[in-house]
Fold Acetyltransferase.
Amino acid sequence: MLPLGCNSNTNASGLDESGSEWRQIDLSKFTGVGALSCKDRVLDKLWRTVGQRIYRCSLLGFSRGNQVRAALLRLFGATVGTNVVLRPCEITTPRNIHIGNHAWIGEGAVLYSLAQIEIGDNACVSQHAYLCTGSHDVTDPFFGLVKRSIVVRAGAWVCANTFVGPGVTVYEGAVAAAGSVVVRDLPAMSVSGGNPCVFIKKRQLRA
């Protein structure tokens, strides 16, 4: 027996399962991330084979580790402020990274920086947070790449295990609670959480 309004070729959601539109999807025609200069290609390869391994090394200690990682990021084109805390994590493309003064990047975080990622002064990206600037066009049968910048402004906090999608701005002092999925901008001095991430309350600092 079928739900009202359905036929043998439709599922309970009303979607036609007999169509062949999906057959247009052809990932063999994916064109990749686009053209890069010779210099950028060389730097990217060096980062993946050497730089990233040094950056993720947990044997550097805390203070010295911060200094080594900051210097390494600058060497590969990142902008890094003073007195930053940089724990072992994964960074795709350092030249697209901008980190402000006194910012913290937690252990196991992923900065998938196909486009620019800006982390402001005194901002914190906690353990295993995922900042993802790249996605795919679901209307493109060849799965075209979409790249949009992410901004985590001054004093904001992206808590542990939170996903931040392409094009999102986490405004000044905003908090994205642990495990959230952030696909829209978060207003300044707010606390938000959940999947999808929604406003919970205003953030009020003690005097």
